[in-house]
Protein backbone atom coordinates (compact mmCIF):
# COMPACT_ATOMS: atom_id res chain seq x y z
CA UNK A 1 0.00 0.00 0.00
CA UNK A 2 1.37 3.40 -0.98
CA UNK A 3 2.00 5.91 1.79
CA UNK A 4 -0.03 9.10 1.35
CA UNK A 5 1.97 12.29 0.93
CA UNK A 6 -0.89 14.33 2.36
CA UNK A 7 -3.59 13.05 4.73
CA UNK A 8 -6.33 15.11 3.09
CA UNK A 9 -5.88 14.20 -0.58
CA UNK A 10 -4.86 11.19 -2.65
CA UNK A 11 -1.33 11.04 -4.07
CA UNK A 12 -2.58 11.32 -7.66
CA UNK A 13 -4.38 14.57 -6.81
CA UNK A 14 -1.39 15.78 -4.79
CA UNK A 15 0.75 15.30 -7.91
CA UNK A 16 -1.71 17.23 -10.10
CA UNK A 17 -2.01 20.14 -7.67
CA UNK A 18 1.76 20.20 -7.23
CA UNK A 19 2.36 20.14 -10.98
CA UNK A 20 -0.01 23.04 -11.73
CA UNK A 21 1.05 25.30 -8.86
CA UNK A 22 4.77 24.65 -9.23
CA UNK A 23 4.74 25.23 -12.99
CA UNK A 24 2.80 28.45 -12.52
CA UNK A 25 5.15 29.72 -9.84
CA UNK A 26 8.38 28.66 -11.56
CA UNK A 27 7.60 30.00 -15.02
CA UNK A 28 5.55 33.11 -14.16
CA UNK A 29 6.81 34.50 -10.84
CA UNK A 30 10.43 35.23 -11.96
CA UNK A 31 9.16 37.06 -15.06
CA UNK A 32 6.68 39.08 -13.03
CA UNK A 33 9.33 40.00 -10.47
CA UNK A 34 11.75 40.95 -13.27
CA UNK A 35 9.21 43.39 -14.73
CA UNK A 36 8.61 44.95 -11.30
CA UNK A 37 12.33 45.29 -10.56
CA UNK A 38 13.10 46.58 -14.06
CA UNK A 39 10.62 49.45 -13.89
CA UNK A 40 11.58 50.14 -10.28
CA UNK A 41 15.24 50.53 -11.23
CA UNK A 42 14.30 52.49 -14.37
CA UNK A 43 12.73 55.13 -12.13
CA UNK A 44 16.10 55.63 -10.45
CA UNK A 45 18.62 55.17 -13.26
CA UNK A 46 18.70 54.16 -16.95
CA UNK A 47 18.91 50.39 -17.35
CA UNK A 48 22.01 49.40 -19.33
CA UNK A 49 22.51 45.93 -20.82
CA UNK A 50 24.76 44.91 -17.93
CA UNK A 51 22.31 46.25 -15.36
CA UNK A 52 19.50 44.41 -17.11
CA UNK A 53 21.39 41.12 -16.68
CA UNK A 54 21.90 41.94 -12.99
CA UNK A 55 18.17 42.54 -12.59
CA UNK A 56 17.42 39.20 -14.27
CA UNK A 57 19.84 37.43 -11.92
CA UNK A 58 18.27 38.81 -8.75
CA UNK A 59 14.71 38.47 -10.04
CA UNK A 60 15.27 34.80 -10.82
CA UNK A 61 16.97 33.87 -7.56
CA UNK A 62 14.69 35.96 -5.34
CA UNK A 63 11.66 34.37 -7.01
CA UNK A 64 13.03 30.82 -6.82
CA UNK A 65 13.97 31.01 -3.13
CA UNK A 66 10.43 31.05 -1.67
CA UNK A 67 9.29 28.51 -4.28
CA UNK A 68 12.07 26.13 -3.23
CA UNK A 69 11.35 26.63 0.49
CA UNK A 70 7.62 25.98 0.05
CA UNK A 71 8.33 22.98 -2.17
CA UNK A 72 10.59 21.37 0.43
CA UNK A 73 8.04 22.09 3.17
CA UNK A 74 5.05 20.56 1.36
CA UNK A 75 7.04 17.57 0.05
CA UNK A 76 9.00 16.80 3.22
CA UNK A 77 7.32 13.38 3.48
CA UNK A 78 8.43 12.58 -0.09
CA UNK A 79 12.04 13.41 0.79
CA UNK A 80 11.89 11.18 3.87
CA UNK A 81 10.37 8.26 1.95
CA UNK A 82 12.82 8.58 -0.94
CA UNK A 83 15.79 8.89 1.40
CA UNK A 84 14.66 5.62 2.97
CA UNK A 85 14.57 4.07 -0.52
CA UNK A 86 18.08 5.40 -1.15
CA UNK A 87 19.45 3.78 2.01
CA UNK A 88 17.71 0.47 1.29
CA UNK A 89 19.30 0.28 -2.16
CA UNK A 90 22.37 2.43 -1.62
CA UNK A 91 24.67 0.74 -4.14
CA UNK A 92 22.09 0.78 -6.94
CA UNK A 93 21.25 4.42 -6.16
CA UNK A 94 24.89 5.51 -6.24
CA UNK A 95 25.52 3.61 -9.47
CA UNK A 96 22.46 5.24 -11.07
CA UNK A 97 23.73 8.69 -10.08
CA UNK A 98 27.26 8.06 -11.36
CA UNK A 99 26.03 6.35 -14.51
CA UNK A 100 23.47 9.07 -15.15
CA UNK A 101 26.05 11.85 -14.88
CA UNK A 102 28.56 10.03 -17.09
CA UNK A 103 25.80 9.27 -19.59
CA UNK A 104 24.83 12.95 -19.82
CA UNK A 105 28.48 14.00 -20.06
CA UNK A 106 29.19 11.61 -22.95
CA UNK A 107 25.87 12.41 -24.68
CA UNK A 108 26.65 16.15 -24.56
CA UNK A 109 30.04 15.59 -26.18
CA UNK A 110 28.52 13.48 -28.96
CA UNK A 111 25.68 15.93 -29.58
CA UNK A 112 28.14 18.86 -29.73
CA UNK A 113 30.30 16.96 -32.21
CA UNK A 114 27.28 16.15 -34.40
CA UNK A 115 26.05 19.74 -34.33
CA UNK A 116 29.53 20.96 -35.26
CA UNK A 117 29.66 18.53 -38.20
CA UNK A 118 26.29 19.89 -39.32
CA UNK A 119 27.64 23.45 -39.18
CA UNK A 120 25.53 24.46 -36.18
CA UNK A 121 27.97 26.42 -34.03
CA UNK A 122 25.55 28.60 -32.08
CA UNK A 123 23.82 27.83 -28.78
CA UNK A 124 20.23 28.20 -27.63
CA UNK A 125 18.91 31.46 -26.20
CA UNK A 126 18.57 29.72 -22.84
CA UNK A 127 22.27 28.79 -22.87
CA UNK A 128 23.29 32.28 -23.99
CA UNK A 129 21.25 33.85 -21.17
CA UNK A 130 22.92 31.59 -18.59
CA UNK A 131 26.39 32.39 -19.96
CA UNK A 132 25.61 36.11 -19.78
CA UNK A 133 24.55 35.77 -16.16
CA UNK A 134 27.65 33.77 -15.27
CA UNK A 135 29.83 36.48 -16.84
CA UNK A 136 28.20 39.10 -14.60
CA UNK A 137 29.98 40.15 -11.40
CA UNK A 138 27.06 38.79 -9.39
CA UNK A 139 27.52 35.29 -10.83
CA UNK A 140 27.70 33.65 -7.33
CA UNK A 141 24.05 34.62 -6.88
CA UNK A 142 22.87 32.99 -10.11
CA UNK A 143 25.03 29.94 -9.31
CA UNK A 144 22.71 29.27 -6.38
CA UNK A 145 19.77 29.24 -8.75
CA UNK A 146 21.48 27.16 -11.45
CA UNK A 147 23.00 24.54 -9.17
CA UNK A 148 20.37 24.25 -6.42
CA UNK A 149 16.99 25.85 -7.11
CA UNK A 150 16.56 24.97 -10.80
CA UNK A 151 17.32 21.23 -10.42
CA UNK A 152 15.11 20.96 -7.33
CA UNK A 153 12.10 22.66 -8.90
CA UNK A 154 12.51 21.13 -12.37
CA UNK A 155 12.88 17.58 -11.06
CA UNK A 156 9.66 17.86 -9.08
CA UNK A 157 7.84 19.31 -12.08
CA UNK A 158 9.07 16.95 -14.79
CA UNK A 159 9.71 13.82 -12.76
CA UNK A 160 7.85 13.51 -9.43
CA UNK A 161 4.68 15.41 -10.28
CA UNK A 162 4.41 14.78 -14.03
CA UNK A 163 5.13 11.05 -13.68
CA UNK A 164 2.66 10.93 -10.80
CA UNK A 165 -0.10 12.52 -12.86
CA UNK A 166 0.47 10.39 -15.95
CA UNK A 167 1.00 7.04 -14.22
CA UNK A 168 -1.16 7.28 -11.10
CA UNK A 169 -4.00 9.55 -12.18
CA UNK A 170 -4.31 8.49 -15.84
CA UNK A 171 -2.66 5.03 -15.65
CA UNK A 172 -0.31 5.63 -18.58
CA UNK A 173 2.51 3.19 -19.20
CA UNK A 174 6.01 4.22 -17.98
CA UNK A 175 7.38 4.53 -21.53
CA UNK A 176 4.94 7.37 -22.24
CA UNK A 177 5.80 9.12 -18.97
CA UNK A 178 9.50 8.89 -19.77
CA UNK A 179 9.18 10.24 -23.31
CA UNK A 180 6.65 12.99 -22.43
CA UNK A 181 8.71 14.11 -19.43
CA UNK A 182 11.93 14.24 -21.47
CA UNK A 183 10.23 16.04 -24.37
CA UNK A 184 8.54 18.69 -22.21
CA UNK A 185 11.74 19.28 -20.25
CA UNK A 186 13.58 19.87 -23.53
CA UNK A 187 10.80 22.04 -24.90
CA UNK A 188 10.75 24.56 -22.03
CA UNK A 189 14.50 25.06 -22.44
CA UNK A 190 13.96 25.93 -26.11
CA UNK A 191 11.58 28.84 -25.48
CA UNK A 192 12.90 32.22 -26.55
CA UNK A 193 11.61 35.67 -27.47
CA UNK A 194 11.45 34.55 -31.12
CA UNK A 195 9.55 31.32 -30.39
CA UNK A 196 10.66 27.71 -29.96
CA UNK A 197 14.21 26.97 -31.09
CA UNK A 198 13.56 23.43 -32.33
CA UNK A 199 17.02 23.15 -33.85
CA UNK A 200 18.50 22.77 -30.35
CA UNK A 201 16.06 20.07 -29.22
CA UNK A 202 18.69 17.33 -29.16
CA UNK A 203 21.01 19.45 -27.03
CA UNK A 204 18.57 18.94 -24.14
CA UNK A 205 16.72 15.72 -24.94
CA UNK A 206 19.53 13.22 -24.08
CA UNK A 207 19.95 14.76 -20.62
CA UNK A 208 16.19 14.86 -20.08
CA UNK A 209 15.84 11.25 -21.20
CA UNK A 210 18.57 10.05 -18.84
CA UNK A 211 17.01 11.94 -15.92
CA UNK A 212 13.62 10.38 -16.68
CA UNK A 213 15.10 6.89 -17.02
CA UNK A 214 17.01 7.27 -13.75
CA UNK A 215 13.78 8.26 -12.00
CA UNK A 216 11.92 5.26 -13.44
CA UNK A 217 14.62 2.68 -12.68
CA UNK A 218 15.14 4.01 -9.14
CA UNK A 219 11.51 3.14 -8.34
CA UNK A 220 10.47 6.80 -8.58
CA UNK A 221 13.09 8.05 -6.15
CA UNK A 222 13.35 11.79 -6.79
CA UNK A 223 16.76 11.96 -5.07
CA UNK A 224 18.41 10.11 -7.97
CA UNK A 225 17.61 12.48 -10.90
CA UNK A 226 17.93 15.39 -8.47
CA UNK A 227 21.52 14.42 -7.58
CA UNK A 228 22.40 13.88 -11.26
CA UNK A 229 20.90 17.26 -12.17
CA UNK A 230 22.77 19.00 -9.31
CA UNK A 231 26.12 17.52 -10.34
CA UNK A 232 25.58 18.20 -14.05
CA UNK A 233 24.69 21.87 -13.50
CA UNK A 234 27.59 22.35 -11.10
CA UNK A 235 30.15 20.85 -13.50
CA UNK A 236 28.70 22.78 -16.47
CA UNK A 237 28.91 26.03 -14.48
CA UNK A 238 32.51 25.34 -13.48
CA UNK A 239 33.46 24.68 -17.11
CA UNK A 240 31.84 27.98 -18.07
CA UNK A 241 33.53 29.97 -15.31
CA UNK A 242 37.04 28.50 -15.37
CA UNK A 243 39.22 29.25 -18.44
CA UNK A 244 40.37 25.62 -18.61
CA UNK A 245 36.79 24.54 -18.85
CA UNK A 246 36.11 27.08 -21.58
CA UNK A 247 39.14 25.88 -23.56
CA UNK A 248 37.99 22.27 -23.21
CA UNK A 249 34.49 23.15 -24.36
CA UNK A 250 35.91 24.97 -27.38
CA UNK A 251 37.98 21.89 -28.23
CA UNK A 252 34.98 19.55 -28.31
CA UNK A 253 32.90 22.13 -30.19
Q: What this model shows, in words?
A:
The chain has one domain (11-252). It is globular, with a radius of gyration of 19 Å. α6 (139-169) runs antiparallel to α7 (174-188). The model has no long low-confidence stretch (mean pLDDT 91). Helix content is 79%, strand content 2%. It is mainly α and 253 residues long. The longest helix is centred in the N-terminal third of the chain and has 32 residues, at 11-42. The chain has helices at residues 11-42, 49-74, 76-88, 90-117, 125-134, 139-169, 174-188, 201-217, 223-241, 243-252; strands at 191-192, 195-196. The N and C termini lie far apart (50 Å). Strands 1-2 form a two-stranded antiparallel ribbon. The chain has ten helices and two strands.
**How many strands, what sense, and barrel or not for the largest sheet?**
2 strands, antiparallel
What is the CA-based Rg, rounded?
A: 19 Å
Principal-axis shape equals globular
* Number of spatially distinct domains: 1
**Unreliable spans:** none
Strand order of the largest sheet: 1-2
> What is the average per-residue confidence, as pLDDT, rounded to a whole number?
91
Residues in helix, %: over 70%
Quote the distance from N terminus to C terminus: 50 Å
Percentage of β-strand residues: under 5%
Contiguous helical run count = 10
Order of helices and strands: HHHHHHHEEHHH
Q: What's the number of extended β-strand segments?
A: 2
Q: Structural class, from secondary structure content?
A: mainly alpha
